[in-house]
Amino acid sequence: MMLELFGHPLSSYTQKVLVALYEIGADFTLRTVDLSQPEDRALMQSLEPMGRMPALRDGDRVLSQSSLMIEWLDRHHPGPQRLLDPDPDASLVARQWDRFPDFQVMQMMQQIVDARIFMGEGAEDRVAPFARAKLELAYAALDRRLDGRDWIAGGFGLADCAAFPALFYAGAIHPFAGHSRLMAYFDRLAGRASVQRVIEGARPWYRWFPFAEGIPARFR
């Protein structure tokens, strides 16, 4: 049966899985979900314990958590681009660095977004300085990690799938100018065919991102 990904082109974690799907050349269908619609919320609650996107259906199996989806794809639908090193120790390094963009970059970005959207007047001024400082620390750590490396953990793989959406949205809020290796890495990411397809699919939706004015013109 064809793979089905339930999510939205603007969703960062949907994008993370889309990069992986395009990298392995999978035959799949993207089922676009709008969580503002009751029927779509009900659908996601039937697929994912907390009703969050994305979810991946492969036959009778439904998976949540973007990192697990990518590991599943690499194990059961491998393509020419393997996303995890078959060596167990090397794969642990990839898993470690996969969590870094999600926890240290994406979560800090999301705090600023949530403050602007949900937390009322003055919330962004209270939340943003701490989150921006944490982003600076994360950018510096990634910049050091990329010294002498093209990709975060060996060849292009799981960690890089995570890094693109995290850096894309965080960079629109708090640019990583001044971190030269990180900037060059992001350009390498943006140049991959898989990432370009993700950008093209998300482009009509970028105007809904609360910090859309920070998205570089080349992506809009």
Q: Can you tell me about this structure?
A:
The protein has eight helices and four strands. With 220 residues, it is of the alpha+beta class. The chain has two domains: 3-76, Glutaredoxin (3-Layer(aba) Sandwich); 88-207, Glutathione S-transferase Yfyf (Class Pi), Chain A, domain 2 (Up-down Bundle). The chain has a four-stranded mixed beta sheet with strand order 2-1-3-4. Helix 1 runs parallel beside helix 3 (66-76), helix 1 packs antiparallel against helix 6 (158-173) and helix 1 (12-24) crosses helix 8. The longest helix has 31 residues, at 88-118. It is globular, with a radius of gyration of 17 Å. The mean pLDDT is 94.
Number of strands: 4
Tally of domains:
2
Numbering strands along the chain, what is their spatial order in the largest sheet? 2-1-3-4
Task: Provide a count of the helices.
Answer: 8
Q: What's the short story on this structure?
A:
The chain is of the alpha+beta class and 220 residues long. The chain has helices at residues 12-24, 38-47, 66-76, 88-118, 123-145, 158-173, 180-191, 193-202; strands at residues 3-7, 28-32, 55-58, 61-63. It is built from 8 helices and 4 strands; from the N terminus they run βαβαββαααααα.
List the helices and strands and how they pair.
Layout: E1 3-7, H1 12-24, E2 28-32, H2 38-47, E3 55-58, E4 61-63, H3 66-76, H4 88-118, H5 123-145, H6 158-173, H7 180-191, H8 193-202
Parallel strand pairs: 1-2
Antiparallel strand pairs: 1-3, 3-4
Helix pairs in contact: 1-3, 1-6, 1-8, 4-5, 4-6, 5-7
Domain GST C-terminal: 87-208
InterPro entries: Glutathione-S-Trfase_C-like, Glutathione-S-Trfase_C_sf, Glutathione_S-Trfase, Glutathione_S-Trfase_N, Thioredoxin-like_sf
Domain GST N-terminal: 1-81
